[in-house]
Amino acid sequence: MPSRPDKRRPHQKPKQDAKSLKRKREQVSLDQLQDAVDQFDPKTADTTKFSNLPLSSPTASGIEASHFQAPTDIQARAIPEALKGRDILGAAKTGSGKTLAFLVPVLEKLYRARWTEYDGLGALIISPTRELAVQTFQVLTKIGRFHSFSAGLVIGGKSLKEEAERLGRMSILVCTPGRMLQHLDSTSGLQVDNLQILVLDEADRIMDMGFKSAVDALVEHLPKERQTLLFSATQSRKVSDLSRLSLKDPEYIAVHESAAASTPESLQQHYLVTPLASKLNTLYGFIKANLKSKILVFFSSGKQVRFAFETMRHLRPGVPLYHLLGAQKQAQRMQITSSYAASKQACLFATDVVARGVDFPSVDWVVQVDAPEDVDTYIHRVGRTARFNKDGKAVLFLDPSEEEGMLKRLESKKIPIKRVNVRENKKQAIDESIQSMVFRDPALKYLASKAFISYVRSIHLQRDKEIFNLKSLDLEAYAACLGLPGAPIIHFDKGEDVKKLKNMSRAALSDSDSDFDSEKKKRKVRTKTDKMFERTNQDVLTDHYTKLIDGTTDRAAEDSEDDFLAVKRVIEGDDFDTVADAKTTLPSGTKIIQGLGGEEPFIVDSKRREKMLKSKKQMLKFKGKGDHIVFDDEGTAHHPYRIQGEEDFKRDGSAEAQRQKFVEGETAKVKEADISDKALAKEKRREKKERRKIREAMEDGLAPAASTMPRLETPDDGEDPLAFLASLPVNNGVHNDGGDSSGEEEVEQRPRKKAKKWFEDDSDDEKNRKKGKKSKSKVIEITEEPDTLEDYEALAAGLLDD
């Protein structure tokens, strides 16, 4: 058979050759890209456009599609150095585009390495907060849309198992330190041995005391041969920090050192001096005067944020209100962040959780009600406005004791700030409204006390005592502005660091708030009763009830005539000697209460005894009136829970003999009950059988005839039985004499049972006759009134006959 001619054209090549040519072209383009990067000199080259930078086509297309045209200063200087594989220490103003400065090198690094999902994790980007990590991930998805890399977001708030299932296929991860450390310790499918690049956004916050242990443990899992990029608005050059991260000859890039300040020039910065007790009034007046603006308000603690949000929400200033703090759940934080970002006029109360890197569009005002802990925190806070060369305004509330020290710190960083005053017609007073709300709502009062305690503790923990001096603050006036009747008592812990405390997890904070023994340094165990008695300031009368239980009152309250709720116990006569003798033998702090009804005075020497005072059952038992008696089947009264004494038990015999006796007695009772039950059941069966026989006889027409039925005899007393029968009603209360029974002689009749069928007509009788059945309805017409006894007997026989 002749072979078929080859129809393939001479210039066609096999598919294998096409693939190899494609790989060669890609390799040539990668080599050309690497040569362009090596030859690129940022000092002489034009860096005013992204198109002039040596970038790959997917990255360039993503940047163009995201509408980024001209790189900022930090981007123009950091991207070329990072593309050459150098470690970077980048410092730039807030809102200067640091996110894009490290995302572009990440994409280019993996693109030139031809990274795939089978090579493991290639890039790791760490952010200090969840909001900043989400924002970074969103920018990454925009500029990397034309790449084939897989990227993931690991920030917590979701199931660790669900995240672990996807991490094995990720090339780029954006994460927070704690959550990433969890996966490195527990997720087996996560490979980091080939990590190419590590990025720390807001590096100064990540590397402070709060994240030190997490960062150290995380770096131990990573390979030392890698590229590391550190970016922040306030960068550090500490040798210890650089050695911890294994940086090799890092390139320090700071674009704001030659400028007049580390804040944008388009930012207008102001401060006003207001006492601590007037800050909420000033804040409310500020919000009312800027209802058409987008405002971001910073507090030092989450409790203050919650209290300010709740009070302002009830006052309804006329603008949408939001609040954001670290204690909220992740879904709630994401919803609040997106809602506030999409709003044009709104006010957000927040902690420093959104002070770094988070980009809220078009923020008009940044208000700092509480002074920042340092200048770096101030720079990050005000950086939420005036971003990307836009205009913005910021105002700082300072107590008179904080003014001098804070201004010195800001001037040392070349931050221009001017003092302003509040107009008299713009001032608002909400103290009375807050006091009224706190008085009516116990939960709000509890929150006010927590806000007071958290603020005072934050001031106590500040390192810079020249600015934050607790003794110079009027705490009583501050408690009054929160609606509290007085300043709560606070127990301070010495030696704590404010940054460590702010960055500590909630579990660690709960442990740190526990009581410790000063001598043994061991944690005490707090019972549920202890926690109950520690709950103060939750109700208006809580303090009063505590005084009643403790039996003690304040000396000033005892002397005051207005305190009509105070209860005092008077000890007279021999009771005084008894109490005095008892006090000499009992430990200190023990209370003795007379007159409760018991034989002995009631002694309160523990928390459990204090709790007994509130129990009616325990107090009745103490008075001897709580003995409960029940009666058995024989009517004998006995105590339900009283146990027989050991001597009485032995007197009745051994345990086995008593058990055998009990079993025999119960067996005899059961047999007697069984005999009576059988006899009763037999009698019921006999009666039922007789009734059935009579019913069957009546249905078959075998009823006895009228002549054989018993006759009524005339009694000896001469009473006529016919007269008795004539007096009985015949039909529905109508007597046989034709009179109506509705008068005084009306006889009450039993209600008839409801018929199963609502009505019955002639057609039913006809159907029954056709089927051979007997008609259920029967009407007997009486033509003559019965006069004699025989007539009545005949009438009865007719009724029984079919």
UniProtKB/TrEMBL annotation:
Keywords: ATP-binding, Helicase, Hydrolase, Nucleotide-binding, Nucleus, Ribosome biogenesis, RNA-binding, rRNA processing
Organism of origin: Xylaria flabelliformis
Enzyme Commission code(s) on record: 3.6.4.13
Main location: nucleus
Domain Helicase ATP-binding intervals: 79-253
Keyword Nucleotide-binding: yes
UniProt biased composition (Polar residues): 47-56
Entry's family note: Belongs to the DEAD box helicase family.
Domain of life assignment: Eukaryota
Top EC class of this enzyme: hydrolase
Pfam families noted in UniProt: CTE_SPB4 (PF13959), DEAD (PF00270), Helicase_C (PF00271)
Function summary: RNA helicase.
Motif Q motif mapped to chain: 48-76
GO BP: rRNA processing
Gene3D superfamilies: P-loop containing nucleotide triphosphate hydrolases (3.40.50.300)
Protein name: ATP-dependent RNA helicase
Stored SUPFAM superfamilies: P-loop containing nucleoside triphosphate hydrolases
Catalytic activity, as annotated: ATP + H2O = ADP + phosphate + H(+)
Keyword Nucleus applies: yes
Regions of compositional bias (Basic residues) in chain numbering: 1-13
One CC-aspect GO term: nucleolus
Residue ranges of the region described as Disordered: 1-56, 681-782
Alphabetical list of InterPro entries matching this protein: DEAD/DEAH_box_helicase_dom, Helicase_ATP-bd, Helicase_C-like, P-loop_NTPase, RNA-helicase_DEAD-box_CS, RNA_helicase_DEAD_Q_motif, SPB4-like_CTE
